[in-house]
Design a protein that fits this description.
- With 105 residues, the protein is mainly alpha-helical.
- It has a domain at 1-46.
- It has 3 helices and no strands.
- It starts with a helix and ends in a 20-residue tail after the last helix.
């Protein structure tokens, strides 16, 4: 016959192992869901920032400014200067009118 003390010890050991395995299972499930979400974002092209952020008050980025001084390139444009530089006319699908012609012809 089985000893009652040995059976209870074995039962306690199995309960502890079950608790450990449930904890590990929950952690793996959480990691799986996080990985699945990251994969879906990657698949949709939503990884990282879409653009660099400009922090006002910082002025130009120091590293880029120093590199431009060392290399001899002009400093990069600030967003305000870049917006003012955009003078290109909006594209339309209509042919451009010449000096002697109107757009309605």
């Amino acid at each position: 016959m089985l000893d009652v003390g040995a059976a209870e010890a074995k039962l306690d050991e199995l309960k502890n192992r079950l608790t450990t395995l449930e904890t590990e299972r929950d952690e793996y499930k959480r990691l799986y869901v996080a990985l699945l979400e990251a994969y879906r974002k990657l698949e949709a092209g939503l990884v990282g920032q879409k653009r660099e952020r400009f922090v006002a008050g910082d002025g130009e980025q120091l590293a880029l400014s120093l590199m431009s001084m060392l290399v001899g390139n002009p400093p990069p444009l600030t967003p305000e200067k870049a917006a003012n530089r955009s003078t290109r006319a909006a594209q339309t699908h209509r042919p451009q009118a010449t000096a002697g012609q109107s757009a309605a012809d």
